[in-house]
Amino acid sequence: MQEEMTLTRHIMLEQSMHPEARGAFSALINQIALAAKIINSRVNMSGLAQMLGFAGTKNIHGESQQKLDVYADATFFDVLDHTGLIAGVLSEESVDIKQVPDKYPRGNYVIAYDPLDGSSNIDVNVSIGSIFGIFRRVSTGAAAIDADFMQTGRNLVGSGYVIYGSSTMMVYTTGHGVHGFTLDPTIGEFILSHENITIPSKCSILSINDSNKSNWYPWTHKYVEDILGRNTEKERFVVSRWIGSLVADLHRNLIKGGIFLYPADKRQPSGRLRLLYEAQPFAFIAEQAGGSSSNGYQNILDIEPDELHQRVPLIIGNKAEVEMAEEYVRKHSES
Ligand code: F6P
């Protein structure tokens, strides 16, 4: 019988490349995988388990929370808080850093996560996901502090996402390529299904929400017109695709080749997506998969954060295409 490469085994192999490692990081990835399995089972059953609809609360961004948002957020924290692996977490759903309760030991890592991304798609059975980025903490006191999270993406020691789709996958990188694991629900294990994911060199997908068109800056109009202008009467080279779940849109583009833009516009001059738990984790993945990311001016991984929940314009995908978009920003700037 051919032995399957489980996520746990894969992580152990990666750990063996770092003789100094004591297993804390591997244990952390395993705990995140556990959170993913628990959330997955709830997502699968949501129509039956009274888990659809709003929770009646708002998150810090003023967005109405879905019951599954609240559930996923609590699950992530519950699987991590007692492990001695982390000092604290930053969640899309909470204003402040969540500290490890005093009764538990603290560890050297901090995690920023979006426990359930794409919430507007929950009730209609469209793919949603979880996103995480892991840093080594920089502070030495008991409590985790803002500076532990406000690091550039270059300091990420690992990042990844889970997609709850037609199958459930966990994709992660620790800086040694990007690897995807599909959950085998019959045994409850993530099995390596996509080793060393690299973005195809051909950019055949454009992902942008064009209902924001009336607020776009000139460069965005020009870029979109030109990329779609590559299509001819005979052949469609670039197709537009927008799911509205960051995880699903980026996962598809990673596998098929494409560019995703949520640019700054007149209504959202700082962009819409969050730097620490949306853009940075995916920027690390994109770079490890041979792609790139930008806010239009600089690589997402080089941005020095100045707020925990800071928004950022995001352009991400095929490297050559991201560079091309940056050129449009330079040439057709809004001023
Ligand atoms: O940040 C949450 C999110 O739902 C992302 O998953 C997605 O890419 C984006 O917002 C969709 O935004 P809009 O509703 O403006 O298209």
Index terms:
335 residues, alpha+beta, Fructose-1,6-Bisphosphatase, Chain A, domain 1, D-Maltodextrin-Binding Protein, domain 2, 2 domains, five-stranded mixed sheet, 8 helices, 17 strands, globular, binds 6-O-phosphono-beta-D-fructofuranose
Annotated CATH topology of the largest domain: Fructose-1,6-Bisphosphatase, Chain A, domain 1
The level-1 CATH class of the largest domain: Alpha Beta
pLDDT under 50 segments (min length 5)?
none
Q: Kindly state the mean pLDDT as a whole number?
A: 94
List cofactors, ions and other ligands: 6-O-phosphono-beta-D-fructofuranose
Proportion of β residues? 15-25%
How would you concisely characterize the structure shown here?
This protein is of the alpha+beta class and 335 residues long. It contains eight helices and 17 strands.
Describe the structure in your own words:
It is a single chain. This protein has 335 residues and is α+β, with helices and mostly antiparallel strands. The protein folds into two domains: 7-194, Fructose-1,6-Bisphosphatase, Chain A, domain 1, CATH 3.30.540.10; 205-332, 3-Layer(aba) Sandwich (D-Maltodextrin-Binding Protein, domain 2). Helix content is 30%, strand content 24%. The protein has helices at residues 7-16, 24-45, 67-80, 146-149, 218-228, 246-256, 275-288, 319-331, and strands at 54-58, 64-66, 86-91, 98-99, 109-117, 128-136, 158-164, 168-173, 178-184, 189-194, 205-207, 239-240, 258-262, 273-274, 292-294, 311-312, 314-317. An eight-stranded mixed sheet has the order 4-3-5-6-7-8-9-10, with helices on both faces. α1 packs antiparallel against α2, α2 (24-45) runs antiparallel to α3 and α5 (218-228) crosses α8. The radius of gyration is 20 Å and the shape is globular. The N and C termini lie far apart (64 Å). The model has no long low-confidence stretch (mean pLDDT 94). Bound molecules: 6-O-phosphono-beta-D-fructofuranose. Residues 117-118, 120, 209, 244-246, 272-273 line the site of 6-O-phosphono-beta-D-fructofuranose.
